[in-house]
Amino acid sequence: MLISKFKHTSLIKSEAKRLGFLSCGISKAGFLEEEAPRLEKWLNNNMNGHMRYMENHFDKRLNPTLLVDGAKSVISILLNYYPSKFQNEESYKISKYAYGQDYHFVIKEKLKELLHFIQTEIGEVSGRAFVDSAPVLDKAWAAKSGLGWIGKNTNLITQKVGSFYFIAELIVDLELDYDNPTTDHCGSCTACIDACPTEAIVAPYVVDGSKCISYFTIELKENIPTEMKGKFDDWMFGCDVCQDVCPWNRFSKPHNEPLFQANHELLSFTKKDWEEITEDVFKNVFKNSAVKRTKLEGLRRNVEFLK
C-alpha cells in the first residue's frame, strides 16, 4: 500500500508537469482549522463588500470532504500566466492574468486530462476539478501542499517563481503521499502594503476586499464610490500593483501556454482606443477572455471613472 501511495503520487506529479503545470503539491483532505476563525472574522468585518457569495457554503469552504464524497487528497496545481509582452504604457491597464483566454476553461481542460490519467493509470478514482469558481480556499490548500506561502498581500508566493500564476485543484478519494508546508519568506518587507493605491492591505496578511481595485473594477456592479476617484492608477480591470512591487516577482518567467498569449490589439491600445471602444471591437478583442465578465458596459464605466 505504501509503495503504491508513493508510486501514484509520483505518477500524478509527472503527468501534471507534462500537462504544463508549473508545480503540483498534495495535501490530506480535511477541515482547515486555522482558516476557519480567519474567514469568519473577515466576513464579520464585511471585507467581502458586495461579494455575498463569499458568505455561502461556509462549511464547504473549510472542508473538501463536503464537496467530494470520501475525499482523501487535495491535489493543488499552479499554472504560470506571466506574459512576455505588456500593454502600451500610455494605456488604461488590465491585470496580466486576463491578457489571454479565460483561465477557467484552460485549466479545467487540463485538470480533466489529469483526472482521466489518474483513472486510467491507477484505477477507479472519483474526484472533481475546481478552478476558482467553487467554495474552495485555493491559496490555503496550495500553501498546505508546500507550493508557496501566503504573503502579506494574501497572494501565494513561491521563492523561485514569484506569484503570477493561477491556483486550482483536484479533490480525489485516493490516498497519496502528502507534502509539507513551506516557510514564510516575506520577512520585514512591506512593499505591497506601502504600494497599494487604495490602502486595501489593512494589515500584514489581511486584505479588505471591499477596498481593492479588482473588487471595484470587476465585482462591484454599482457605481464606484466617488472617494476612490484618482486612486486607481489607470487600472480598468483588476490590479497587479501588490504583485508588481513584490521582490519575489523578479524571478517571474514568461509562460509557454499558447492560449494565454495576448491579443495584439489589447497590447497596442491607447487610452483613446479604450475610450472609443465599440461592441464589435470588444467582442473581437475579448472573445474568450475573462474580461467579458464586466461586459462592455462595465468596462466603459471603469474607463469613464478613470478619465
UniProtKB/TrEMBL annotation:
Q: Where is the 4Fe-4S ferredoxin-type domain?
A: 174-206
SUPFAM superfamilies linked: alpha-helical ferredoxin
Is the keyword Iron in the record? yes
According to its UniProt record, the EC number is 1.17.99.6
The note on cofactor binding and number reads:
Binds 2 [4Fe-4S] clusters per monomer.
Q: Which GO terms describe its molecular function?
A: 4 iron, 4 sulfur cluster binding; cobalamin binding; epoxyqueuosine reductase activity; metal ion binding
Q: Which UniProt keywords apply?
A: 4Fe-4S, Cobalamin, Cobalt, Cytoplasm, Iron, Iron-sulfur, Metal-binding, Oxidoreductase, Queuosine biosynthesis, tRNA processing
Keyword Iron-sulfur in annotation? yes
* Ligand binding (tRNA): K221
Q: Which residues form the active site?
A: D132
Q: In which pathway does it act?
A: tRNA modification; tRNA-queuosine biosynthesis
Residues annotated as binding [4Fe-4S] cluster 2 are C196, C212, C239, C242
One Gene Ontology BP term is: tRNA queuosine(34) biosynthetic process
Catalytic class of the enzyme: oxidoreductase
CC cofactor: cob(II)alamin; [4Fe-4S] cluster
Summarize where [4Fe-4S] cluster 1 binds, as residue positions.
C186, C189, C192, C246
List the GO terms this entry assigns under cellular component, sorted alphabetically: cytoplasm
- Which reaction is recorded as catalysed by this protein? epoxyqueuosine(34) in tRNA + AH2 = queuosine(34) in tRNA + A + H2O
Q: Where does cob(II)alamin bind?
A: R61, D132, N153, L156, I167, S214, C239, D240
Q: Where in the cell is it found?
A: Cytoplasm
Give the record's subunit note: Monomer.
Q: What is the purpose of this protein?
A: Catalyzes the conversion of epoxyqueuosine (oQ) to queuosine (Q), which is a hypermodified base found in the wobble positions of tRNA(Asp), tRNA(Asn), tRNA(His) and tRNA(Tyr).
Family assignment from sequence similarity: Belongs to the QueG family.
Please name the NCBIfam families in this protein's record: tRNA epoxyqueuosine(34) reductase QueG
The protein's name is Epoxyqueuosine reductase
